[in-house]
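Page 42, continued from yesterday. The earlier attempt failed because a stray header line got pasted into the input along with the sequence. Redoing it now with the clean sequence only.
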Amino acid sequence: SHIYFLVTKYLSISEFSDANQVSSWARDSVKTIQEYGLIQGIGANKFDPQSTANRASVATIFMNLIQKTLY
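This time it went through. Structure tokens are written below.
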């Protein structure tokens, strides 16, 4: 048996104001997970890509993923 996940892609995409600080190797992935609504940044339309993610940030990403795939 197979398990399939449906992730609805957001139609409107906002760029983070500090998007230019995202490493080139991560840029496509950051854009994709933002488009799918898994990340919203740290507020004020910032992502703060050079900081270290804490447990709360990672937990939020996983919770968003679960909500998008199960509901």
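Notes: Residues 39 and 61 are 6 Å apart (CA to CA).
Reminder to self: strip header lines before submitting.
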